[in-house]
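Bumping with the actual sequence this time:
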Amino acid sequence: MGGSIWRLVVGLAIPEASAWFSAWIPAVFHVLLASFVLTLAVYNLLEPRVD
């Protein structure tokens, strides 16, 4: 997740960066997906099981 945020920052801060850095839609999608997966993992780790 940190790599995608770094990619967004580099793409916004350096105008002459390569096209890979300026493709912000995949980076935003990856940040959102990683946030969802991490939230789901924390929920499943902390939620007590009901049998």
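The tokens above came from a reply further down the thread. Residues 2-46 form one domain.
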